[in-house]
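Schema walk-through. Below, the input block comes first and the output block second. Nothing else is stored per chain. Lengths vary across the set, and this one has 88 residues.
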Amino acid sequence: MMMLDRERLMKMMNVEMRRSMSERVLVYGGFFLGGALLGTAFGLLTARKPGVELRRDLRAKADQATHGVLKEGGLLRDRESEFSEVRS
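--- output ---
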């Protein structure tokens, strides 16, 4: 009679072995990314504006936010002075 090791016994009983932490992270990360993609797709499909107009609005809002962050951090002022020196 053959000795059964733990893995074979678990397979015979159709019980899954415990997953390692990396396997859990990959599985849950995949579910999260899949949900994010589905949510984005659903949001774009149900948007009230046509695609081109929606993209323009999103770009404008992103530019405003980026401009505000750079201006608060002082990075924009430094770059503006660099560009003014180049233009002169």
